[in-house]
Amino acid sequence: MKKALGTGLAALLAVGFMAGGAAYAQEVDLAAKTAELTAAGESVFADNCAVCHGEKGEGNVGPKLDGNDWIAERSNIINQVLFGATDHGMPPFKDVLTDDQIAAVATYVRNSWSNSYGPVLPQSVASIRSATK
After folding, report:
1. For residue 97, how many other CB atoms are within 10 A of its CB?
2. What is the structure's pLDDT at 132?
3. SS3 string of 59-106?
4. Segment 13-34 mean pLDDT
5. Cβ atoms < 10 Å from Cβ of 52
6. Could you tell me which residues are beta bridge partners of residue 98?
7. What is the pLDDT of residue 5?
8. Minimum mean pLDDT among 26-35, 66-75, 91-100: which range?
9. Domain regions of the chain by residue span
10. pLDDT tens across 55-89, in order?
11. Is the pLDDT of residue 50 over 70?
């Protein structure tokens, strides 16, 4: 019985260490993905968003994005980019940008200037896009 308990405890600890390692690996992958998407999103932002939101997210015709905690919620920014806010002058980009481009620009906005909210993955954009068809 004692041996079985010891073996079980050892197995539990091993699983805990492996899970911790996997979590660490996922964090590293997530950081790399965030950096990749942020880099890709910079040109999408410059080409499609900066004219209204300012080159540094400071706002212009469109609202300020730098320090805007509304973008902390991933679905907020995904919906806004996909469907726009035509009553406020923002066009929808669902027929202009791909899921990858929307994920990239959303990640760029969420992680530039003073913002640090993490990535938006293309799968999340695809999910919201398909749910609203």
Report:
1. 19
2. 85
3. CCCCCCCCCCHHHHCHHHHHHHHHHCEHHHCECCCCCCCCHHHHHHHH
4. 59
5. 15
6. none
7. 38
8. 26-35
9. 38-131
10. 999 999 999 999 999 999 999 999 999 999 999 99
11. yes
**Tokens (6 digits) for 11:** 């197995």
Using the Cα atoms of residue 57, residue 58, residue 60 and residue 62 in order, give the sign of their dihedral.
positive
**CA separation for the pair 127, 12 (Å, rounded):** 36
What is the token pair recorded at 127?
A: 């999910």
Q: What is the DSSP letter of 55?
A: T
Q: Rounded to a whole number, what is the distance in angstroms from the first to the last CA of the chain? A: 59
Assigned architecture for domain 38-131: Orthogonal Bundle (1.10)
The rounded distance, in Å, linking the Cα atoms of 92 and 7 is 59
65 within 8 A of 59, measured Cβ to Cβ: yes
Q: Match 């929307």 to its residue by tokens.
A: 102
CA–CA distance, 26 with 28 (Å, rounded to integer) = 5
Give the long-range contacts of residues 128-133, CB within 8 A, separation 24 or more.
128/75, 128/78, 128/79, 128/82, 129/82, 129/94, 129/99, 132/82, 132/83
